[in-house]
Design brief:
The complex is a heterodimer of chains A (414) and B (236).
Chain A lengths: L2 H14 L1 H39 L4 E6 L18 H7 L5 E9 L3 E5 L2 E5 L2 E4 L2 H5 L4 E4 L4 H5 L4 E4 L1 H8 L4 H4 L3 E4 L2 E9 L11 E4 H8 L4 E2 L2 E2 L8 E6 L5 H15 L6 E5 H5 L2 H37 L1 H9 L4 H38 L9 H27 L3 H6 L2
Parallel strand pairs in A: 5-10, 7-9
Antiparallel strand pairs in A: 1-13, 1-14, 2-5, 2-13, 3-4, 3-8, 6-9, 7-10, 8-9, 11-12
Chain B lengths: L1 E14 L2 E14 L3 E5 L6 H8 L7 E6 L2 E2 L5 H11 E4 L11 H11 L4 H14 L15 H13 L5 E5 L7 H16 L3 E6 L2 H4 L4 E6 L2 E7 L11
Parallel strand pairs in B: 3-8, 3-9, 6-7, 7-8
Antiparallel strand pairs in B: 1-2, 1-4, 4-5, 9-10
Helix pairs in contact in B: 3-4, 3-5, 4-5, 5-6
The chains are: A alpha+beta (414), B alpha/beta (236).
């Protein structure tokens, strides 16, 4: 028999038991959807990981972070002013240090323009060192000048993805000088970064460090008590002149910072190695566990299909007998039942891909901008093919059973 | 010339330790164009004989030739092909598939014979025309009366232009008037050149056919052809 007709018969069979087929196919739908979104999410994580590696730049970058003071310094820890701009100035004089980039990062930044919003915690206050240390290029317009940095000007430079979120696809040149609201404060857009084709790097938004400090980091209110102006710098990134002298450079920086921190060692240096060691492992772990969960779902779905097909061929014993009497070979019956299972699985798979897209949208909303799920062709293909293979395997046992039926007994079956 | 040659056929079913000799040494010839009834009480072996003639079953011993093909030596796939192309079945309970419409039911043997779509359409229309149901092609079997259903089944049996039509109690599920019209249809089918074998337990229906083969306890007990002077059985 022509396989096309077999597929048609499969559709007809499924259609004649709509509800039953829906329930049976649901397992496949869920399995494919979860497999697909698992791929998209872990893919997003992997891309994020790779891009942050790139953004992080070379291995000669070190970032300065807080650390609980050692026990013996517990009594003097209040002597330290913490990480301040004084550290930045001091670190610039360290011989083995090449660049120092102070950064403020706002955790709840919103940029608005005529009803369009860009929400992110990638909005940063930086100075000109940022460009070189994070490897950014201004594509059109310009970066802030020293004067703007000193005057705390309300100017902004943004990445291409952010630009599209806020302005659509209008060309950069038209948009220079446009006003946007950054957490309610009016800023002029003076430049755009180049298109990098990166999920994260293209979403960057920067304003002058001093402006960010003044607008969003100036107050230092703890438990309702104003402790005076806050001079803390949220993050300091340093580039060492040479990888070879990393240890010496860290030692030099440590000595300088002990000075500015009044002898309190409430800081630590974070290098690339210890930062990314475990990330790849954890992405792999998430991918594996997601795969196991979706795989088990799909196997359960396959068993469900087998079960329903077994019942279905029992019900259709007489039909199979009639078909055999009319010239159907064992192989024809086998193929017909297999195709039915396959059609069911493929329909489930197609619906599953749809559900997967929806699920990924929801997950993307929930995760906001932290991890952007990325749907890639291979993940989609793999999810779909898995469903098809499961459907085919699920059909084999019932198909063998059906093809082995004795036509005489099948014809007698009531 | 013989369309069917049955030589010394036995069919033995084993049920545990018991042997049931459903057919015990049956030999017969049926010529092309004959109209034959096989009659016997239930349990006589007539259904077993029909299954063997229809290539739905193979004998335990003996030989069966249909149209010069020794079916007792043929593989399962070959038997399916013979069933699809040389034999048309008509059953007591019609055995139309309820999910398919009339057209598709009649089309099935052609589908399994691998005939092209256009040819299938022409031949289905022709077969439905022959039984007078061309206007019902799009209906489902449950929208038709019993007599109409049986006519559809006959159309399905005819559609592949088989040499042999095997009918198992074709009027058993119909009232006598409708049954009469179905038998009339079989006469027409026979007149147009098909060999027709009716299997029945009803002597009145067996009177329809020129030749009557009576079976009892797995053996042919009588074989008379009223068109011939001597009983056909004696010529073997």
């Amino acid at each position: 028999m022509n396989p096309l007709l077999g597929i048609l018969e499969g559709f007809r069979e499924i259609w004649s038991h709509k509800f039953r087929s829906l329930l049976t196919g649901l397992g496949v739908v869920l399995g494919v959807a979860s497999l697909m979104s698992m791929f998209a999410i872990t893919n997003g994580q992997a891309i994020q990981f790779r891009e942050s590696l790139e953004m992080w730049g070379g291995a000669n970058r070190v970032s300065l972070e807080d650390r609980p003071v050692p026990e013996e310094q517990e009594s003097i820890k209040d002597l330290s002013p913490g990480r301040t701009y004084a550290d930045v100035v001091a670190l610039k004089r360290v011989p083995l240090v090449d660049l120092v980039s102070p950064q403020h990062r706002l955790n709840n930044g919103v940029v608005e323009r005529e009803g369009r919003f860009y929400r992110s915690h990638w909005i940063r206050g930086v100075d000109e060192a940022f460009l070189e240390i994070e490897n950014h290029q201004v594509g059109s317009g310009r970066f802030f000048t020293d004067v703007e940095l000193r005057n705390r000007s309300r100017v902004m430079v943004m990445g291409q993805k952010t630009k599209r979120t806020l302005f659509g696809n209008r060309p950069d040149q038209e948009l220079l000088g446009e006003q946007v609201l950054f957490n309610g404060v009016k800023f002029s857009v003076i430049g755009f970064f180049e298109e990098y084709d990166h999920q994260y790097k293209d979403r960057v938004v920067v304003v002058p460090f001093s402006t960010m400090q003044e607008l969003f980091f100036a107050a230092n209110v703890v438990n309702g008590k104003d402790l005076g102006p806050n001079r803390k710098v949220e993050r300091i990134v340093v580039r060492v002149r040479d990888m070879e002298v990393m240890d010496e450079a860290i030692e030099q920086m440590r000595n300088v910072l002990l000075q500015t921190h009044n002898g309190v060692e409430d800081f630590a240096f974070r290098t690339r190695e210890n930062m990314f060691e475990n990330i790849e492992q954890s992405v792999l772990g998430v991918r594996l566990s997601g795969f196991i969960v979706s795989g088990v779902t799909l196997i359960a779905a396959g068993v469900g299909i087998t079960n329903i097909m077994m019942a279905s061929i029992k019900e259709r014993t007489r039909e199979i007998g009639v078909r055999r009497a009319l010239g159907a070979r064992k192989a024809d019956v086998f193929v017909q039942i297999c195709l039915e299972a396959l059609v069911l699985a493929v329909l489930g798979g197609v619906l599953g891909l749809g559900a997967g897209y929806a699920l990924i949208e929801v997950v993307a909303q929930l995760l906001d901008e932290t991890t952007i799920p990325v749907i890639d062709f291979w993940g989609v293909l793999f999810s779909f093919v898995t469903a098809v293979v499961i459907g085919f395997l699920a059909g084999i046992a019932p198909a063998i059973q059906a093809s082995k039926m004795n036509p005489i007994e099948a014809l007698r079956f009531e | 010339m013989a369309l069917i040659e049955v030589r010394d056929v036995q069919r033995i079913y084993r049920m545990g330790d018991n042997e049931v000799r459903a057919l015990d040494g049956v030999s017969l010839d049926i010529d092309k164009g004959e109209y034959v009834s096989i009659i016997g009480p239930s349990g006589s072996g007539k259904s077993t004989l029909m299954h063997l003639l229809g290539c739905l079953d193979v004998p335990t011993s003996g030989e069966i030739k249909i149209d010069d093909v020794t079916v007792t030596e043929s593989s399962g796939g070959k038997l399916s092909k013979i069933r699809g192309q040389k034999i048309g079945f008509v059953f007591q309970s019609f055995n139309l598939l309820p999910k398919l419409n009339i057209f598709e039911n009649v089309e099935l043997p052609l589908v399994y014979s691998g005939i092209s779509r256009k040819q299938r359409r022409d031949r289905v229309e022709e077969a439905l025309e022959a039984v007078g149901l061309a206007d019902r092609a799009g209906h489902k079997s449950n929208e038709l009366s019993g007599g109409q259903n049986q006519r559809v089944a006959i159309a399905r049996a005819l559609v592949n232009k088989p040499q042999l039509i095997l009918a198992d109690e074709p009027t058993g599920a119909l009232d006598s008037q409708t049954g009469e019209r179905i038998l009339e249809l079989f006469r027409e089918v026979n007149a147009s050149g098909h060999t027709v074998v009716l299997v029945t337990h009803d002597p009145e229906i067996a009177e329809e056919t020129p030749r009557k083969i009576m079976i009892k306890d797995g053996k042919i007990v009588q074989d008379v052809d009223r068109n011939k002077a001597t009983p056909a059985g004696d010529s073997i």
